[in-house]
């Protein structure tokens, strides 16, 4: 029996466990300089989940625990992308989410936020692939091909679309350094040489404007646009060791609350989950049942979630927790006004 237990503990299974994490007041993580702030710090909480890889023994015994969701490794990464990239992908998503939260919050307060496309950011690298062999990694930013600037993901795709397989491509890359706690910094651009390959049969057309038909060459990377926003003041959100995009809505509401007069929440204990984009659109997230448990333990009375997750949250909620579903930041602000919150008014006159 002892041998069996030891073997099960040493044998890793291709599953992860989602369990309730913590609910944290976002205001305690925020530092704002150069903009007037409201000192009341209403309790708006983000909530996370714990994601852990499992041995066969853990997978077995955790079936007898409550509030556990099992997720296969294939559900967490794109096809062909190794699960070893999960941590850096999560930190990149959090970095993007913090930027989007700042932009959405300031725009909701009346600010005009100019933006500039500055490259193509790598969000995943297939193993094996030309990009993997060349050493490209998650969060690296491609800013040029053969000395010609690249401003977007479609710009990079268009530059290699018609190249013959086996072509040598010189990419101008700003390599990303992702710290152990999730802080991403960038080095100056340097040239990285990559030899393209024939695209796998499963690859679908990119859909980029002006790029017709299937790609002739393949690098083996997934991409997003790299965008720089010119923001007023200085806003920092300390999300050390927290990955993923699901805190976007909670961070956005907190920034609006910090930068505006009055109480956004009517001084109630509010929690929120959901992605946010710079236009204020709210997207769905995972682990909502486990997050509902976490916010209840923290004393929240209102939980704002993406509309598609309302049923999941309500099934896990106790009678003392009200669950409201939204698809936009505007709907979330309206939900807060219905429970006594005030309409946000920027303390610093917007420009």
Low-confidence stretches: 1-8
**How would you spell out the order of helices and strands?**
HEEEHEHHEHEEHEEEEEEHEEEHEHEH
Strand order of the largest sheet: 4-1-3-14-17-18
User: How many individual domains?
Assistant: 2
Q: Give the beta-strand count.
A: 18
Overall geometry:
globular
Oligomeric state, counting identical vs distinct chains? single chain
- CATH fold field value of the largest domain: Ribosomal Protein S5, domain 2
Biggest pleated sheet: 6 strands, mixed
Give the CATH architecture of the largest domain.
Answer: 2-Layer Sandwich
User: Radius of gyration, rounded?
Assistant: 22 Å
**Number of helical regions:** 10
CATH class of the largest domain: Alpha Beta
Estimate percent helicity. 25-40%
Kindly name the structural category. alpha+beta
Query: How far do the termini sit from each other?
Result: 70 Å
Question: What portion of the residues fall into strands of 2 or more residues?
Answer: 25-35%
Mean pLDDT: 89
